[in-house]
Design a protein that fits this description.
The complex is a heterotrimer of chains A (306), B (259) and C (517).
Chain A (H helix, E strand, L loop, with lengths): L1 H28 L13 H10 L6 H13 L14 H36 L4 H15 L2 H15 L13 H31 L2 H8 L4 H13 L1 H24 L5 H10 L3 H29 L6
Chain B lengths: L2 H19 L31 H37 L1 H15 L3 H12 L3 H28 L2 H8 L4 H37 L11 H10 L6 H29 L1
Chain C lengths: L1 E12 L2 E12 L3 E5 L6 H6 L8 E8 L2 E2 L5 H11 E4 L3 H4 L6 H10 L8 H10 L5 H4 L9 H13 L5 E5 L7 H18 L2 E6 L2 H4 L5 E6 L2 E7 H6 L4 H9 L16 E13 L7 E13 L3 E6 L5 H8 L7 E6 L2 E2 L8 H4 L2 E4 L13 H12 L5 H14 L16 H14 L4 E5 L7 H18 L2 E6 L2 H7 L2 E6 L2 E7 H6 L4 H11 L1
Parallel strand pairs in C: 3-8, 3-9, 6-7, 7-8, 13-18, 13-19, 16-17, 17-18
Antiparallel strand pairs in C: 1-2, 1-4, 4-5, 9-10, 11-12, 11-14, 14-15, 19-20
Helix pairs in contact in C: 4-7, 7-8, 8-20, 14-15, 14-16, 15-16, 16-17
The chains are: A mainly alpha (306), B mainly alpha (259), C alpha/beta (517).
């Protein structure tokens, strides 16, 4: 198990470094800078700004300076939101994005594993078929289609829930975004659980358990479920990454002040420090999620502990 | 008969031939018919600058599907080549090549694509190159796994004993046996790419006006949905149908070959 | 008074009849063996009455006075929990991978409603099945035990609730030959101690002999013969049983007629093969350690050992079809180059036949193309017409009809597939065959036919053979000499008769003991 984690970290650190390096180089290689606005700046202001942000230094020195500051948790000032540092913006946006993502992940796991279990216990009968079909459709339904549809039905037509806004995370404001974000992942997890259970229930050791005359629920939960969840565990890492990405759209549709919106704004306005900061942060988070998924994997299957 | 693929074929045919048959081009602005309700001449109505929505939907479908197909093919070529080499050569080469894939997997890749779009400006070419360059990772992993499994099969060793040079083994035995799985994942990659392209377009980072795509149409439909839900439902419906059908067909093929 | 009585049992799956009219009874302390080839319906007839197969059982099956046929899952469950224990073929997959041995024993002991046992009871359970250091084993997961230990745990769990009947479905097939009789002896002992009735399912008459009181022979879902084991095996009445009995090679049957041996052909010396250890541990695992052997023209040498002894690795290293770290191979005095530098002329010398006939053939190729592959590469100048003629001749050589040529491997039976593999090995007219467990994946009767084919080819063509096998009796049928391997070393080498009649090394003695019963 320890070697697995060390191995992960061995890949993670170069990856993190690569992300920082790549995004840094790409942004610097970009045509046009943050001061190429519609109203040209006078040369003196421009020079002062360039110097203040360290844009006149050789590129490797800029990278070196950036890396040192990143290591201290300082991503520098935002170029577009002039009164804020990137760290300020992250501190404002990240809790919202994380809340959204975490709730959506929990919902997706609950819905997915639950429906997968129902499907497996009704194999080849109508609940199984409906759940299977529904899961495939959910997986293929992009959140930027479901989100406006949910708004249309529950917000505009029925008027049950607010159409947009965060309102300090008030429950009515959270419901639609979380559902829209979670549904595709719930579909995928449902399919993985169902397939995992199908193969686990066909395993020899389940036959042994059944031969002992154990109750069907004991066989399902004690003997079949854990191996069946192994594929789900390895999906949680990528799913968490997908939830962070999906949050960008959801935050746009529902006008939530999360990190994703800052990122899009930053990308559209060539706000280097902001974009670099967010990409680095997300890369770090994804690595963390993959690590957690590995730990879950080891718990589910002792053979993987090595 | 494969029903999902038939449905996709119908949609493709409509997207290719449809615009030729319509009286309205997709990009002609008509300030006299802004946000027109569905009528005989505009079956889906018009958008906020009076362009025919049916024509725009068909063209948008065409753009989305061609980007997706091209990007999926890029993913296929890179993925199969990378995976086959890593699996076949093995050892340190494999280790390093797969570490690269692991590393790229850990990238928040949607953000990297957005970065590319921002840096190099928006163009269809870049959209599909960017997406294809990221979507090959799964293909590479799957192909590598298959190749490693095949490599240990006795018929490969028998081929070596039969004097077949490595190139003949790769072309004659390995690739044909990988082809089925690769096709399945190609079918599964297309919806992935459709999703990413639409996602980018939705955020305003994909293809540019006056050209359109399903993602842009969904976005525009969502903006105007309180006036007419048709603008959201039709492109959204086509998008979802394509995604569901390709996913179903791909999964069916994958299950057949992995069994 | 019988514990288990089966009368006119029929099994159907989805309305298709698979097993018909099986009848037998087992008394307390008695062992009845169901014998037949794969697909004969023997496992199905044991599992279906207990609701453990997709089939439906009709007829009458009485377990200690209770009729099982016609009961639904709800009614069968408590009967399974109380009255019967099961042992399956694959002890690794039959135990739940994420539960410790202790937890699984606890579940088994309590399945019939007994109170929670103490830890020392578990230790006693494991002691009874002959598992040493029981207190450590309780806290281990199944994958941390060896194959034989797992099967002992499986047996302990299957008998923990003191059932009347033990159903053992191929309990020794996945184990090494020398372990087989130990496990069967254990089952015999429990039978005697607890008055357990045992229903043994096996394809292997050698396992049945000496352990079963009575034998029921099945073929294509029908019972062809049944009776007391010693009488039935000594004087089989039915044609099929006779063929089965005759197909089992015996260690002390009449000596086979082997062709004369010629001049020295191949010499392998100081062969060493290592593999990197799994994980990130340093060092390498030594699979073959300084092995030396020779084979003469027309001579057959058997490389015998238990699984993991390195015999396959050595065979492949000699044929230059696997890795080799140190050591040289000479062919009629000339050095064979390393694996990557083997030329056409070198490759023509030795051709392999592998264990799994289906995996040996590319599923996407036609039989004719599979057989022609060696001549395509090794004799590239041959015309298409001559190639086709050669393929046809090769098919006839292995007693396959010419219309097989257009089939794909999927459409072949195991025996046919192995014949195709042999035809491919022979078509370039090699001087030596490498047989890597070439018959051990086949049913007994088919295996006997393949052995007969190999004997004919050996006689007619003067082929040298390097036969890798775990089966001494098979080695004796085909080979002049036997080399015994253990842990990467060749521990004994000599004339086949000498090795079998007076084995010197403990491993050889164990192998001989295992094959003799």
């Amino acid at each position: 198990m320890l070697t697995l984690i060390l191995r992960r970290l061995g890949t993670a650190i170069p990856t993190l470094f690569g992300v920082i390096f790549l995004s840094f180089v790409l942004m610097r290689a970009a045509p046009g800078g943050p001061f190429d606005g519609e109203r040209p700046l006078d040369p003196a202001t421009r020079a002062a700004l360039t110097k203040a942000y360290g844009l006149d230094l050789p590129i490797h020195e800029q990278f070196g300076r950036y890396l040192t500051r990143v290591a201290q948790g300082d991503f520098g000032p935002s170029l577009v939101y002039r009164d804020f540092t990137v760290t300020d913006l992250v501190a404002k946006g990240l809790p919202i994005s994380l809340t959204l993502g975490a709730l959506a992940l929990l919902l997706a796991l609950a819905l997915g594993i639950g429906s997968g279990l129902v499907g497996a216990t009704h194999a080849a009968r109508w609940p199984d078929k409906i759940i299977g079909m529904g899961a495939t459709i959910l997986t293929a339904l992009p959140s930027f289609v479901t989100a406006p549809l949910l708004v249309l039905v529950f917000g505009l037509s029925l008027g049950w829930l607010p159409v947009s806004g965060w309102n300090d995370g008030g429950l009515p404001n959270v419901i639609l975004p979380v559902i829209a974000l979670a549904l595709p992942y719930a579909g995928a997890i449902s399919k993985l659980t169902r397939a995992g259970l199908a193969s686990a229930l066909a395993e020899d050791h389940v036959r042994t358990a059944r031969a002992r005359g154990l109750a069907p629920m004991t066989v399902l939960f004690r003997h079949a479920l854990r191996p069946a969840l192994v594929p789900v565990a390895s999906y949680v890492g990528p799913a968490a990454a997908g939830l962070l990405t999906g949050a960008v759209v959801i935050e746009t549709v529902f006008a939530l002040p999360g990190l994703g919106r800052y990122f899009v704004q930053g990308a559209l306005n060539r706000d280097y420090p902001l974009v670099l900061g967010v990409v680095t942060l997300y890369a770090g988070l994804i690595i963390l999620f993959n690590l957690l998924a590995d730990l879950a994997y080891g718990w589910l299957d002792p053979r993987a502990r090595g | 008969m494969n029903r999902p693929l038939t449905l996709v074929a119908v949609i493709v045919a409509a997207a290719v031939l449809g615009p030729l048959l319509l009286p309205w081009p997709y990009d002609v602005i008509d300030w006299g018919a802004v946000r027109g309700a569905p009528s005989l001449s505009h079956p889906l109505g018009t958008d906020s600058v009076g362009r025919d929505l049916l024509a725009r939907t068909l063209v948008g479908t065409r753009v989305t599907l061609s980007v997706a197909t091209a990007a999926a093919l890029v993913a296929l070529v890179i993925g199969v080549a990378w995976g086959a080499v890593a699996g076949w050569v093995g050892g340190k080469t494999d280790e390093v090549m797969m570490r690269v894939v692991d590393g790229l997997y850990a990238l928040p890749f949607m953000f990297v694509v957005i970065l590319l779009m921002v840096v190099f400006g928006r163009s269809i070419l870049l959209v599909f190159l960017g997406i294809g360059a990221v979507e090959w990772l799964t293909m590479a992993r799957v192909v590598r796994g298959q190749v490693i499994q095949l490599k240990q099969r006795p018929f490969i060793i028998a081929a070596e004993a039969a004097g077949a040079p490595p190139r003949a083994i790769l072309i004659g035995h390995i690739l044909p046996n990988v082809a089925g799985v690769a096709t399945a994942y190609l079918l599964l990659t297309v919806p992935q790419v459709v999703m990413v392209e639409s996602f980018l377009s939705f955020l305003g980072l994909g293809v540019q006006e006056p050209l359109t795509s399903l993602g842009i149409l969904v976005k525009e439909g969502a903006d105007d949905m309180d006036l007419s839900p048709l603008g959201l439902l039709v492109p959204g419906g086509i998008l979802v149908t394509v995604l569901v059908c390709l996913t179903l067909a791909g999964e069916k093929l994958r299950d057949r070959f992995s069994a | 008074m019988s514990v288990y009585a089966v009368e006119n049992l029929c099994v159907a799956i989805d309305g298709v009849s698979i097993v018909e009219n099986i009848s037998f009874t087992i008394a307390a302390g008695e062992c009845v063996a169901l014998v037949g080839e794969s697909g004969s319906g023997k496992s199905l007839s044991c599992m279906t009455p207990f609701g453990l197969s997709p089939g439906v059982a009709t007829g009458s099956v009485m377990l200690g006075g209770t009729e099982l046929c016609g009961l639904d899952e709800r009614a069968l469950r408590p009967l399974r929990a109380a009255g019967v224990g099961f042992v399956f073929q694959q002890p690794l997959t039959a135990l739940t991978p994420h539960l410790k041995v202790g937890a699984q024993l606890m579940e088994a002991a309590m399945q019939a409603g007994a109170p929670k046992p103490a830890r020392r009871d578990f230790i006693a359970m494991l002691d009874r099945v002959g598992l040493p250091r029981a207190h450590e084993k309780l806290d281990q997961y199944p994958h941390q035990l060896s194959g034989g230990q797992r099967q002992r745990v499986m047996i302990a769990a299957a008998t923990a609730h003191n059932p009347q009947l033990l159903i053992a479905d191929e309990p020794t097939t996945a184990l090494d030959a020398s372990l087989r009789h130990e496990v069967m002896d254990l089952i015999d002992r429990l039978r005697a101690e607890q008055g357990l009735a045992v229903l043994l399912v096996s394809h292997d008459l050698a396992t049945v002999r000496g352990h079963a009181n009575r034998v029921v022979v099945m073929q294509h879902g029908l019972m062809v013969e049944s009776g007391p084991a010693d009488i039935l095996l000594a004087q089989p009445q039915h044609k099929y049983t006779q063929a089965l009995v005759a197909a089992v090679p015996l260690l002390d049957g009449p000596a086979p007629h082997l062709p004369a041996v010629g001049a020295p052909l191949l010499a392998a010396s100081d062969m060493t093969v290592t593999f990197p250890r799994a994980g990130w541990r340093r060092g390498r695992f030594v699979a073959v350690d300084g092995a030396t052997l020779t084979v003469a023209a027309g001579e057959a040498l058997a490389l015998v050992g238990e699984s993991g002894s390195g015999k396959s690795t050595l065979g492949r290293a000699i044929a230059r079809l696997g890795p080799c770290d140190v050591g040289s191979v000479t062919w009629m005095g000339e050095m064979l180059p390393e694996r990557a530098r083997m030329t056409r002329d070198h490759r023509r010398l030795i051709q392999p036949v592998f264990q799994d006939p289906v995996a040996s053939l590319d599923p996407r190729w036609r039989v004719a193309d599979i057989i022609a592959e060696p001549i395509k590469h090794l004799m590239p100048d041959m015309s298409k017409g001559e190639r086709d003629a050669r393929v046809a001749a090769a098919l006839m050589d292995v007693e396959l009809s010419l219309d097989m040529a257009d089939r794909r491997p999927k459409a072949l039976s195991g025996g046919q597939a192995q014949r195709v593999a042999i035809a491919r090995a022979l078509i370039a007219q090699p001087q030596m065959l490498l047989l890597d467990e070439a018959t051990s994946a086949l049913d007994v009767l088919v295996a006997a036919q393949i052995v007969a084919l190999l004997q004919r080819l050996q006689r007619e063509r003067g082929l040298a053979i390097l036969a890798i096998t775990h089966d001494l009796a098979l080695a004796r049928q085909l080979c002049h000499r036997i080399a015994v391997m253990d842990a990467g070393h060749i521990v004994e080498i000599g004339k086949a008769e000498d090795v079998i009649t007076s084995p010197a090394h403990p491993v050889t003695q164990r192998l001989v003991m295992a094959s003799r019963r």
